[in-house]
Every structure is written in structure tokens, then in C-alpha cells.
Amino acid sequence: MKVIVDCDTGNDDAWAIISLLRSEKMLRSYEVIALTCVHGNTSVENSALNNLLVLETLDRLDIPVFKGAETGFIKNKISIVPFHGLDGFGMIYDKKPSKELIQKKHAVLAIKDLIDEHSDDVTIITLGPLTNIALLFKMFPGISSKIKSFYLMGGNHLGIGNITKCAEFNFWNDPEAAQIFFEEVKCSVYIFPLEPCVTAGLSLPLNEWRFKVLSSNNNPYTNLLDRVEAKAYGSRNWDIWTPWDNFLVSCFILPRLMKKVTNKFVTVELSGNHTRGQMIIDHQKKEKPNAFIIEEIDVEEFKKFMLWVCEHDVPDFNIKILKMKVIIDCDSGNDDAWAIITLLRAEQKFNFKVLALTCVDGNTTIDHSAVNNLLILKTLDRLDVPVYKGADSSFIKKHTQHESFHGPDGFGMIYNNKPSDELIQKKHAVLAIKEFIDQNPNDLSIIAIGPLTNIALLFKLYPETASMIKGLHIMGGNHKGVGNITKCAEFNFWSDPEAAHIVLAEANCPIYIFPWDPSRLASESTPFDEWRIMKLSNNNNPYTNLLDPIEIKAYRNILAHWCPCDCYLASCFILPRLIKKMNNCHVTVELSGYHTRGQMIIDHQKKEKPNAFVIEEIDVEEFKKFMLWVCEHPDSDFE
């Protein structure tokens, strides 16, 4: 993932940049590709010079710095004494890096070029007024659908202000920009407002913790900011430390810091005498949510993180421990098996943890699916992963039956000796998913590679879970009207169209769909005999040994190309760089058509707000390299 930081650099922005760059190397899950400057705490020129000073301290002057908007859409009539001093750094440093190091291109144009270069893989973290982003949206309509997500520091969710009685500084500085942003954004948005900053600050005493603890080891970061912050806080007689922007960035780096997140509709007041710039929340829930609001963080964990950032020895904190949690919801036939094998082989290398396999009716019955999962786990020596049985039929019983491509038991009736079903958990899969979500709010992704019945039941039983999931990754549907079970429908969506409709309508989290069409396209470069059997299986590995007899029976004399649909999705989850083309659009499902029931419907006219990222093409050669690595092949050159 690529990250752009849009900032108005005072001391709290500096802390955010330091935290991001200190964590970047350790986590290896993102890359900061630019710092863009906007008016706010200080002028854009001062902000750019402050950024260069921060980068010089970190030995990271390789990161480009761009200057952007110098004023808001409407110039504020009220002048203020900047908290951070006229230059944003308390006028402490006379000598800063040369402004010749600042890039000539305007920040808004730089952001546009970087989004085009890294489409759908750019997250923008905004730490100042939203002027640059609003200008981006106005100059390049529709560009927000090419952005992965936004993280914003700004606004207020309880009506408490810090620059006026009712408004927070960043939103107050350019309310029109904030309004444009919320009207036009078409990707995930996370907001860290004023109130949780103040609450967190109450547990961060300025002298006793910020200066006496955080600065006690003579590290370069507090050495840079000690005098800046002593002057800023001392001039206001504050006795708590509130690094506003760094709270947001820390939540981006460490999602486990977030203790309470709500999903609400957000806009901004433009006209009020007292309330101009106030963030307006739809507490009545009449409008569809457009942002996740972080309302509370784990301050003790934040302290440990900051000690780590400042190179203290923190025995009970290890940033590398961070693992995203994953549940695989499946109807295990052979392509599900490949997805599960791939995910569990990649688990440690790519820093995520599979919490459970949940079974749904689809390729085979839930009883067969669960036992097939146990066989896969046994092959991987991973019977520690629990298996749960879920929905044993769709919302509305299918009127037509079909002969399963995978055989009656999902595994071609090849194996008579499978693990005992006593190893299957007793709890229903939907209840298990709910408990895992409660234990890992906003830090759990679901990879759904069967019909969506379990997920739809979850949303209907527990509506709040629809906004507590980090990401929902779905194999299913079709974006060109080409079916594989009927003329117009793909198998998973056709198996339970009502469930797919519910999930797409009610999910309030990022959705990524790998439909049937790119599966067919990718398979054309993967001949079954020549590559799948003669190449992937020629090193006597346990995974192909398990699946060879199943797939030979399913494919040979029927299909010439290997098409592990579910594995394509799982591989894109693990390796986003595999995605060559992805479209952010509004998606639903046809429920009534005689020929088209179960077809995925795309709003190509772009009249409705996008609700899903649809993957349209992958890098097949890179996928092949990855699969050779999965199968421990000596010819693998995957890195």
C-alpha cells in the first residue's frame, strides 16, 4: 500500500510523520511516497521546510515534498495566533534544509499523478485542512474512486470546538473543502475527531510523561521537538500532551489501538454564526453512513508505541506481533482447498492469522465441506484452526439442481478415509463469526469463497457487524454478464442471490470482489496438463499430492485450463500487487430475472455511490510464481 501524507506541519504533524516512517520499515505493509503541504498551522512554505527538517532528522530526504493550497476556498475573516508559532515550529530553528529541495510540481497535481501510477493502492492521510483534497476532487472528478482509503484528523463528533465554541481547527480552516470532500468521496474514510484527542491527552501529562519519560533517552526525535513543544504548550499553560495528528496515524499503523469506532453519515456546517466548521453527525441514522469515526483509543498501548517510536526499550511491546485476523467462509471444493492452502502457507510471511474456517452450503453440503476442510488442515498440520458449520441451504430453496463440478462430496469422491467429524466445532458458524468480530473489531477480514448465506445471516442477526469488519473479500458474481452455471450468472451468487443482495446492500466496510470473468481470463494462460500437472506438481509436495487426483478427475477431458477461482481471490488478498485492473463501482444482484437471476449488476453509468472494488484483471505470470512458492517448488523465484 502506498501512503501520501497531506499536512500543515506543526509539531503534531511532525510526530505523525516520525511515527509513520519509523514503523514503515518494520511493518513493510505500506510505503510513504510523498508529503504534500497545505495551509493551516503555518504557511505552505514553512510547512514544506518543516517537513524537510523532519525528513533530514530521519535520514529520509528521499521522500518528495510538494507545496499545495495557500488558502482555503473562502478566506477566514478571523485571524488567530498559531499554537505552533508563526513557522509551525515555534520559531526555534533558524537553519533548515534548503527550499531548493521542495518539488516544483503543485501538490494537487502530484497527488493526481501518484494515484494514476498506483491506482487503487493509495491511502491518503490528511493532517490539516482538506483544501488540497477538495481541489483534487474538483479538478479530477471521479478520482476518489481510485483511492484505497482516507484517514482524516479533524472535525468533532460531540459539538466541542478548539478554535471556536463549536468547531475543530482543521474543519474550521476550510469548511467548504470539508463539505466537498464528504459530498464527493467514494472510498473508505476514517476520522479521528477532536474529542478523543482531548480524552487521550488527559492520560498524557506533559511534564511527567512527555518530557520526563519520552525524552529521557536522548533520542533524535524528542531532541528535534522538545523545545518546539515546550514553547507551544508553555505559552498556553497546558499540562497535558495532545499530539492530535499522531493519534490518527497511530491508529492507521496499529488498528488495535481503536477501542470504539462508529459508522455514521458525516457532513459540515457552512453557515452557522457559531457553528460554521462544525462536523455534523447523523445520530438519527437516516442517511447512509459515509465515514468511520474513531471515538476512543487505548492510551496505554499508544504510550508503549510512542516509547518504541523513540527507541526506548519496551519489553512488552513488539510492533512485529501485529497480525490482521482472517476468517475463511467456504464451501470447500478443490478451488477452496487451494485458497485455504495458499492463505495458511502465506500466513507467517505476510503477517496475518487465520482464526477459523466456516462452512456454507454450495459446492457440496456443509457436512462434506467441513470434513474436507479438516483434511486440508491435516495435510498442512494445522488442525489448530477451528472449523464451524453454518447455513445448510440458501435463503430461498433453488428450483433447479445441478451436477457439481467438484463431485457430490466436493472432492471428487476420491478419499474414503477423512478426519473424524468429531473435530468440527459445535457452535454455529454465524455465531462464531460474531464472537470473532467482537474480539477483533475493525481488525478482522472475511474471505468469502462460497455463497454469501452465512454473511447475510450475520448482518441480519447482528446489523452492527456490517461496520465492524476490516474488509470483505468475495469470490463471486460477474461483471460482463457471462455466467458459469446459467447463461448470465456465476455459481456463488446464483446459489443464493438474496444473500448476495443483502451483503452488498448492507455491508459498511470495504468490499473487494473477484468475479468469474477475470477467472476465465487468467485461466487461459494456465494450461491444466502442461502447467498445473507437469509443472506445479513435479516436486512431490503435499498440497498437489492431495489435490492432483481430485483435479485430474474434475478437469481432464472436460477443461483444458486450470481455473482455481477462489485461489485467485486469496492471492490478491495476500499480494495486492497481483491486481492489474480494479474498478470501484456500485454493485447489486438481479433477483427476479428468468435468465438473469443471480447476475451481478454493475452501475456502469455511475449514477449510484460505489460500494465495491471489482477486480477485473490480474498478473497471471506473477500468480504462477506465487503458486510455485506456495507449493515449495525449487524453480520458484518469488520474492
UniProtKB/TrEMBL annotation:
One MF annotation (Gene Ontology) recorded for this entry: hydrolase activity, hydrolyzing N-glycosyl compounds
The cross-references to Pfam families, in alphabetical order and at most eight, read: IU_nuc_hydro
Q: Which domain of life is it from?
A: Eukaryota
Q: Which residues form the Inosine/uridine-preferring nucleoside hydrolase domain?
A: 3-304, 326-625
Record InterPro entries:
Inosine/uridine_hydrolase_dom, IUN_hydrolase, Ribo_hydro-like
PANTHER family the UniProt entry points to: SI:CH211-201H21.5, SI:CH211-201H21.5-RELATED
Q: Which family does it belong to?
A: Belongs to the IUNH family.
Entry protein name: CLUMA_CG017889, isoform A
Q: Which organism is it from?
A: Clunio marinus
